[in-house]
Amino acid sequence: MLIPVSSPAATPDAKPSTKDRMRSAFAFPKTFWVVNGIELLERGAYYSFAAVSTVFMRSVFQGAGMTAVAATSLAATFGALLFLLLYAVPVVASPFTERFGYRSSLVLVFVLLAAGYTTSFLTSVPWMVVAYVLLIGVGAGIFKPIPASIVTQTSSDEKRSLAFSIYYACINLGALIFPLGIALAGTILGWGNQGDTRLWHLTFAVSAALVALNVLVALFVYRNLRAPQKDKSFGESMKVLGEVRHYPSFLVLMAIYAGFWFMYGLVLSFLPAYMDDFHRMPSWFNELYLQTLNPLVIVVGAPLIAPLATRFKPLTLIATGVLVYAVGLIMIGFTGTSLLFASGVVVYSIGELITYPAWLAYVSRIAPSEKVSTFLGYGFIPIGVGQFLGAKVGGDLYAKFGVELGRPELYWAIMASIGFASAGAFLIYNWIVTRKTREAPSEPAPRRRLPMGLVAALLILLAIPALVLAGSAVPVQKVTSSAGGSEPLSAASLVTHALPDAKGTTAPKANATQTFTLPDNATGAFEVKLAWTDAPAPTGYSSTPDGYAVHVIAPNGTMVGMATAKNGADGKGTVDVKVDGATGGVWTVEIVHSDQGGYSADGPTGPLPVQPPAGTPVSAPSDTGGNAWTLTGSYQTSS
């Protein structure tokens, strides 16, 4: 293309236009954009899955006969295993990823992830939970360091900050867009209530589809920038990792930093369960809507909070961010209103937005110049350890204090105390480091000042017992969700109340719906029993059994109980469904004629009323009349 002589581009001294500068700034190789697209899809799949993972696992375990407390604790164990794999696998897998090349590794990663999310979609028994946790943990663990490495290879030093800003934007956009899309789709389809198993399965199906798309991208679009590094070895990787022992003060700092990730792992795993169990949000606000709040705050708030990095010292910012995160947990745990619950999520997201960039800035500042990347790699250790303990220890404590004892305020007070302790420890560490780096003794001693950082740290630490006492003072609440369930109260403390009977007739293969309104003081068990008598067979024929299913749906729209049965030889049949942890509201019972019986001439009860002509086959009539049924119900209140 010819450029006119008068064009500014042809004038050597002319400044490039804003459009040209923007084009130059964002001029990255194709591989850079491909890997960021891959990251966006993979994070969308993972965070969608993570939003419902714990509540889904818990429902599977309860479906296998476990109590709510045991199911919650086991879900904590498998959540912790997933976090362990996410941060342990990269240490082992990174050398092999370099040896075999990124393209081959990406194909393997997304095949594993597709298998894992597909398995979660098919899961109905506990052993399948083990299978998909292993598949997803190993696949995501191998994947974790690959995109960051490719971003580094595809960006120059002067563009490195912009490159990683785009990379982190893709992570948060994936964590925002796809869960929000699934949540909206669930709402449109009528599957959007908290604890709706159809929404969970839709989530797993979308996650599987996203990583399957990444398999195609890795095979047909992505191209390696460099040949596989055949000289990489596992021993070298472990040697580099082992160097951290030579920096004891940094080990202490990592141990303190793990407290922040303890809270993060806990929130990612069990906040959806808490929201469902104690009805902190309207039933339409499902687990996937909850997932979108955090990345939304980060995407919107990052440009607003970034200037703080130039005004305050990194350690002060880290301590502030951790404290803000803990305050968000207090707001979540000590509120009974949806507005304050959502505000608590916004507050802890701001805390995360302050803490993590400040940590990266501080580590890159204190690390020896030749070991900056190594020190940043060490930063994954407290993240992995903290999230592992947050999911396991925090989950077990939630099973005890939240589900079993009904003390959610006390539980969140204890969890926030972890953050208070970490924030105070950061300030004490900062005070110690500041003292060691003062002017040389030969210089005039500075005027003594009150160590405000140390005072602030002590005040924060003294607030911990007050916080725990405040949590202890709140009256006991009972878990009322279908997923969490609540442990049955002792029989001596309960009074059973009968509900008016409902009667009807259901045609073969048809459904009927009945509703029961329970008072606000309902607790203990809600029980319904369907009884029917199969329609008698015509003279000369015997009747084959009919089958019925009864579905019990809680006020939040979640199916919490189901049973099926067929009538016996006497024609009488019953289906009994009992749900523990009932609460006030409108409960729905669906009566489904699941199996249509018929009539058989193989065992006539008497002579045929009319003999057909010789050679004419005997044809039994159809059972089309349906059966009359009676539905009885009862609920309990505490005496």
Describe the structure.
The protein is an alpha+beta fold and 639 residues long. Helices cover 57% and strands 13% of the residues. It is built from 17 helices and ten strands. The strands form three sheets. Strands 1-10-3-7 form a four-stranded antiparallel sheet, with no helix packed on it. Strands 2-8-5-6 form a four-stranded antiparallel sheet, with no helix packed on it. Strands 4-9 form a two-stranded antiparallel sheet. It is globular, with a radius of gyration of 31 Å.
Write out the strand line-up for the largest beta sheet, numbering strands in chain order: 1-10-3-7
**Helical run tally:** 17
Order of secondary-structure elements: HHHHHHHHHHHHHHHHHEEEEEEEEEE
β-strand number: 10
Mean pLDDT: 83
Low-confidence stretches: 1-11, 482-492, 603-612
End-to-end separation: 89 Å
Strand content: 5-15%
What shape does the CA trace take?
globular
Helix content: 55-70%
What's the story with the biggest beta sheet? 4 strands, antiparallel
The Cα radius of gyration reads: 31 Å
Secondary-structure-based class equals alpha+beta
Main traits of this protein?
single chain; 639 residues; alpha+beta; four-stranded antiparallel β-sheet; 10 strands; disordered N terminus
TL;DR of this structure?
The chain is an alpha+beta fold and 639 residues long. The chain is built from 17 helices and 10 strands. It is 57% helix and 13% strand.
Question: Layout of helices and strands, plus pairs?
Answer:
Elements: H1 18-25, H2 30-63, H3 68-100, H4 102-122, H5 126-143, H6 145-153, H7 160-189, H8 197-220, H9 234-242, H10 248-277, H11 287-305, H12 314-333, H13 338-366, H14 372-378, H15 380-404, H16 408-436, H17 452-472, E1 494-506, E2 511-518, E3 522-533, E4 542-543, E5 547-553, E6 559-566, E7 572-580, E8 585-595, E9 599-600, E10 627-638
Antiparallel strand pairs: 1-10, 2-8, 3-7, 3-10, 4-9, 5-6, 5-8
Helix pairs in contact: 2-3, 2-7, 2-8, 2-10, 2-11, 3-5, 3-9, 3-15, 4-5, 4-8, 6-7, 7-8, 7-11, 10-15, 10-16, 11-13, 12-13, 12-16, 13-14, 15-16, 16-17
